[in-house]
Design goal:
The chain is about 45% helix and about 20% strand. By secondary structure, it is an alpha+beta fold. The N and C termini lie far apart (about 55 Å).
C-alpha cells in the first residue's frame, strides 16, 4: 500500500536527482542516450531534465561530443555536507599526521545505507600510492572501515545485514561465507582494528580503526592503505597498525570519548 506521504513526491525532481547520482569517477560523462538506457527513461523526458539541470548550472554540455558532465555546483553541495559533519574538522589534522608518519594514503569514512562512504583523504607522497576514494561507496564486509562498523553492530542488526546482502567475491580473499565473516568480525572487535587483506582490491592492504563519539558509539572510521608489497609482515605490525589505532583513539578522545563503550587502544 503506497505511503500517503508519497503524494508529495515530485517525480521529475526525483528523476533529475537520479541523473546527477549517475555520474561517478568511473563514468564522468553521459550522453542523452546513455542516461536514457541507464535509468530506463524515455529520451524526450531525459532531454527536458538535462536541459533543466544545465540551466540550473549543475551540468554542462560539450558541444562537440553532445555529452554532459557535472559542474562545480555539485562539489559545492558536497562541501556543504562535509562542513556539517563536525568530526571531519576534528579528524583531518590527525589524518594528516597519520599519513605523514606512515607514508601511505589515509581515508575517513562513515557507514551510509550499509555501505562505506568515504568523506575525505590525505594522499601519500609515494611514487606508487592509492588514489582517492572520496565520494565513493564500497561494500562494508570487505573493507577495513566497513568491517569495524559491522563488528560493533548488535547481533540482530548484523544478522539482518547478512540476510539482505549478497556477499560478492571481489578477490580470492573476499570472505563470502556469513558464518566465517561473523567469526572474523568478533576478532576485529576484540583487537580494536580491522585489516582488509586484499579482500576488495587485489594487492591492496588497508588497516582501519573505529572512531567513537562521546556516547561510546561508533561514528566513523579511518584507514591507511597501500600496495601489498609495502604493507606486509613486520612493517604492517610494527609501523602501521599501532599508528592507526593511536590515531583512532586520539580522534575519539577529541570528540569526547572517555574510553567506555569502545574497544580502542588507549594511548599512553
Amino acid at each position: 500500500m503506497p505511503n500517503k506521504e508519497d503524494r508529495y513526491v515530485i517525480p521529475s525532481v526525483v528523476r533529475a536527482l537520479q541523473i546527477l547520482e549517475a555520474f561517478s569517477s568511473e563514468k564522468t560523462t553521459y550522453t542523452n542516450a546513455e542516461i536514457s538506457r541507464t535509468l530506463g527513461l524515455n529520451k524526450s523526458s531525459v532531454t527536458r531534465l538535462l536541459y533543466s539541470l544545465e540551466k540550473a548550472g549543475f551540468i554542462k554540455r560539450n558541444i562537440e561530443t553532445g555529452s554532459y558532465q557535472l559542474t562545480h555546483k555539485s562539489l559545492q553541495i558536497g562541501r556543504v555536507y562535509i562542513s556539517q559533519v563536525n568530526f571531519h574538522k576534528v579528524a583531518m589534522p590527525v589524518l594528516q599526521e597519520l599519513t605523514a608518519s606512515c607514508q601511505e594514503t589515509s581515508h575517513l569514512g562513515v557507514l551510509e545505507e550499509m555501505e562505506v562512504l568515504y568523506l575525505d583523504w590525505v594522499a601519500s607522497n609515494q611514487t606508487v600510492a592509492l588514489a582517492s576514494l572520496t565520494g565513493k561507496k564500497l561494500p562494508a564486509y570487505c573493507t577495513g572501515v566497513g568491517k569495524n562498523f559491522l563488528a560493533h553492530m548488535d547481533e540482530e542488526t548484523l544478522s539482518s545485514y547478512l540476510h539482505n546482502i549478497h556477499l560478492a567475491q571481489y578477490t580470492s580473499k573476499t570472505i563470502t561465507d556469513p558464518e566465517k565473516l561473523k567469526e572474523h568480525l568478533k576478532l576485529v572487535k576484540k583487537h580494536g582494528y580491522a585489516i582488509d587483506d586484499g579482500e576488495f582490491q587485489e594487492d591492496v592492504i588497508s588497516v582501519s580503526s573505529p572512531i567513537f563519539d562521546d556516547n561510546g558509539s561508533i561514528l566513523a572510521g579511518i584507514s591507511v592503505a597501500g600496495p601489498a608489497f609495502r604493507m606486509r609482515n613486520t612493517f604492517l605490525v610494527k609501523n602501521i597498525i599501532p599508528k592507526v589505532r593511536r590515531a583512532g583513539t586520539e580522534i575519539s578522545r577529541r570528540l569526547g570519548w572517555d574510553g567506555v563503550g569502545g574497544d580502542l587502544y588507549i594511548a599512553t
